[in-house]
Amino acid sequence: MLETRDLTVRFGGHVAVNAVSCAFAPGTLTAIVGPNGAGKTTYFNLISGQIKVSAGRVALNGQDLTPLGAAARAQAGLGRAFQLTNLFPQLSVRENVRLAVQARAGAGLNLWRIWSDRRDLLEKTDRVLEAVALADKRDALAASLPHGDQRKLEVGILMALEPQVFMFDEPTAGMSVDEVPVILNLIRQLKNDKTKTILLVEHKMDVVRELSDRIIVLHNGELVADGEPETVIASPVVQQAYLGISPEEKEAV
Ligand SMILES: Nc1ncnc2c1ncn2[C@@H]1O[C@H](COP(=O)(O)OP(=O)(O)OP(=O)(O)O)[C@@H](O)[C@H]1O
């Protein structure tokens, strides 16, 4: 169970995330929605350890992660897709995944190690490449891939690391229409696993509606709604705060 308790961060006088308490169970996908500037990415940054909290705590399976930096939190089981910064651009697609598989297996990050004795790790690398639909591009340099393929590779790296918690911040941003379903399928596969905790920041409501078991809404840094997707989407607070229409206007439409 991932939990945030009274999680708060202030930037100068501005409270970007304000006392957010929430728990996320394994086997669930929670979408985090809210208008621009609501604090969604900042909430993610506080959870994954990219920024320090002003107050409150983050815990995973009862372990207090708050004092830990981002790397230690990743070790503890938090996995976040980082808009391509996880990639090694000058390595091939396969080597990128292979290093993640190797790291997960505790085999270290030595690219030159002889791999023939670890057939299981090579097989896992190939399984991940199949899963992210990059098997036919395995020998291409990561840097040479189109944007959508780089995002898929990043998800593959994350899958190879097998974190307990997967955090996706607008995973389909900048993708072409035909690439979007591949990423959504991957997230669906992770969800079907039933053991992973998945958090998704997403603006596209159709994606949110389709994938999520639960939606939480942030507005001005505060948690203002939390519940089943249909109920939350229909709630006045979302109609007003997120979609920008008041219930009266909606009547008129
Ligand atoms: N490092 C920072 N220093 C100062 N202010 C910041 C910092 N990071 C975020 N903010 C402010 O905190 C607020 C929340 O920003 P955040 O990026 O978390 O919102 P968001 O909900 O993810 O928005 P979007 O949907 O546009 O990505 C904004 O007002 C933003 O300007």
TrEMBL record:
The keyword rRNA processing does not apply. Pfam families: ABC_tran. SMART domains: AAA. The keyword Transport applies. CDD domains: ABC_Mj1267_LivG_branched. GO terms for molecular function: ATP binding. Keywords: ATP-binding, Cell membrane, Membrane, Nucleotide-binding, Transport. Residues 2-245 form the ABC transporter domain. This is ABC transporter ATP-binding protein.
